[in-house]
Amino acid sequence: MPTISLRFKNNTIGTYDLQPGQSLTIGRLDDNDIIIENLAVSGRHAKIDTVGEGYLLTDLQSKNGCFVNEKLVASHWLNHGDKVSIGKHILEFAFKSGEPRPPAPATDQRDQTMVMDTGDYRDMLSKCGAADRLASAVGKPVGVLSYLAGGEGEFELTRKLVKIGKDANSDIRVSGLTIGQTAATISKRPNGYVLSYVAGLSKPKVNGKAVKQSVALNEFDVIEIGALKLQFFTKE
Questions:
Q1: In sequence order, which ranges of the chain are alpha helices (DSSP H)?
Q2: Which pLDDT belongs to residue 99?
Q3: From residue 106, how far is each of 61, 68, 115, 189 by CA, in Å?
Q4: Could you tell me if 86 and 26 are in contact, meaning their C-beta atoms sit under 8 angstroms apart?
Q5: Could you give the CA distance from residue 185 to residue 165 in angstroms, rounded to a whole number?
Q6: Alpha helices in 76-190 (DSSP H)
Q7: How far apart are alpha carbons 170 and 139 in whole angstroms?
Q8: What is the maximal distance between C-alpha atoms in the chain?
Q9: Predicted confidence (pLDDT) per residue in 163-213, tens digit
């Protein structure tokens, strides 16, 4: 498992392991997983999610932004040795010695890092209100999940990453002894939406077939996780 090392002025003040299926929140408030006590850091500044074999850093509309290797980003798939600057602190992402590393993805398998200058970044936040709603801001089709069982109504996939599971912080909650805290995720990729199995004895199913890793979602696919049943489609 990879490790996050928190540093300040060349001193390591904390290390954090990323467990499979785990998310880490970063910020100034005491309920974050990684707490940075500095006024330049927002209460909830950023988060790191495990998505399949990858690790996604997302800025949470922070006031001063996140920088990866000195470039301002809204989201970024982390690589070994990446240095994330938050305020005056550095978080270094690294795999342990001898640990297998996931292969580098092809450009059509993951979003490219979103890099903007500070002016563009502030303007985007003021107009859109959230970095993870960029797709709707530029008029691209938005994915929608319609409840067939286990709930009512619809859930729009306006975020870059949506978590499904029995954890209280999941975007879509589903209960059951065999359901993982984060059972699955749905991520927005350049070519559409991808559902990934994360953890739990009950693997998600798409059109009745178990998903062992990841699968691209197509119009009107039916997703099942425990008692939850959803149908996927897109709308303008």
A1: 118-128, 134-137
A2: 72
A3: 28, 20, 19, 12
A4: yes
A5: 9
A6: 118-128, 134-137
A7: 26
A8: 53
A9: 999 988 889 999 889 998 899 999 888 788 999 998 888 899 999 999 988
Lowest mean pLDDT among 77-91, 92-106, 203-217: 92-106
CA–CA distance, 215 with 196 (Å, rounded to integer): 7
Residue 179 tokens read as 């359901």
Length of the chain: 236
pLDDT tens digits, 185-194: 998 887 889 9
CA-angle at 182, arms to 112 and 192, nearest 5°: 35
CA 68, CA 152: separation in Å to the nearest integer? 40
**Measured CA angle at 137 (ends 132, 138), to 5 deg:** 120
DSSP 185-208: EEEEETTEEEEEE-SBSS--EETT
Contact, 183 vs 199, CB < 8 A? yes
First and final C-alpha spacing in the chain = 39
Nearest CA-CA partner of 32 in 86, 81, 99, 109: 86
List the structure tokens of 172: 């879509």
Q: Distance between CA atoms of 1 and 20, rounded to whole angstroms?
A: 8
**pLDDT level of residue 36 (50, 70, 90 thresholds):** very high
Q: What is the pLDDT of residue 98?
A: 76
Q: Distance (Å, rounded) from C-alpha 37 to C-alpha 80?
A: 26
pLDDT band at 109 (very low <50, low <70, confident <90, very high): very low
